[in-house]
């Protein structure tokens, strides 16, 4: 069983990679202390003073790396969910994955503050899985899952999980600041320690998702065609969903619940790179990284020294797009 890789737009992935690199370099100069491109270049070549070097290497560079990785993971998760569920509305935050992971992170941070570093991504993975399982089971009717139904039930489940988050926060006001930063979605304060916490998971999950692109292509064709091609349908779907849940769960531990990144980036990637996951997944990862890095830079540069969390910026962009997409798929009638 083989599927040919699409041949259109062969230069799109190198172009997106170049744009991401340019955006990251530009983002290094944005903040309360603005640095010109020349000053950024001087730091990168070791010719700058100690103050500028510290700002870039200790504050901004790890922040940009964390944002890019988490954006790539959110986008890959959304692309897999949209293909496997065959639902253009599917994304980690819409189908309960983000809210479940966020609840698990809040519980870990507030109720178990002395937990080891591995407990945070592990808890987020478990919470993301529980959130999506609830949505999928409630949306399933007569063995089928309607596209708009899973989106609407996902919104309801996410609201319920969010209410539990608020209940925990009310009962633990002393730790509310750290937990709220995860729920809003931000890479503020990201350091090399946080990057090292998510890097092993990203290095495992992102390549693994791309290596399964043929499986994802077949799953996106529908159940009957997948069975006709000899695929073990339930096992393949379970592996795909586990990857999507894991990617979103780890991303939440690094950047919090960044709204709509997993919805917007795969749609943009599909327009630019085509429907095959061989190109759709890397394009989604690059666009997701660009979206988060750009949103964070915009939040830092709007009204310095005040910083607008990246999650607010992505939500302001993604919410209107989601409403338009919901109308187009028939979920909102005139």
From TrEMBL:
Keyword NAD set for record? no
Kindly list the residue ranges recorded as spanning the membrane: 12-33, 61-81, 93-112, 118-138, 150-170, 236-265, 277-294, 306-326
Localization of this protein = Cell membrane
Recorded hits in Gene3D superfamilies, A to Z, give: ABC transporter involved in vitamin B12 uptake, BtuC (1.10.3470.10)
What superkingdom does the record give? Answer: Bacteria
- Name any one GO molecular function: transmembrane transporter activity
UniProt keyword annotations, A-Z? Cell membrane, Membrane, Transmembrane, Transmembrane helix, Transport
What cellular component GO annotations does this protein have? plasma membrane
Its GO biological process terms? siderophore-iron import into cell
InterPro entries reported in the protein's UniProt record: ABC_BtuC-like, ABC_transptr_permease_BtuC
Membrane association type: Multi-pass membrane protein
* Major localization listed first in the record, in broad terms: membrane
Stated family: Belongs to the binding-protein-dependent transport system permease family. FecCD subfamily.
In its UniProt entry, what is this protein called?
Putative siderophore transport system permease protein YfhA
Q: Supply the source organism for this entry.
A: Calidithermus roseus
Q: Which classification does the entry list for the species?
A: Bacteria, Thermotogati, Deinococcota, Deinococci, Thermales
Gene that encodes the chain: yfhA
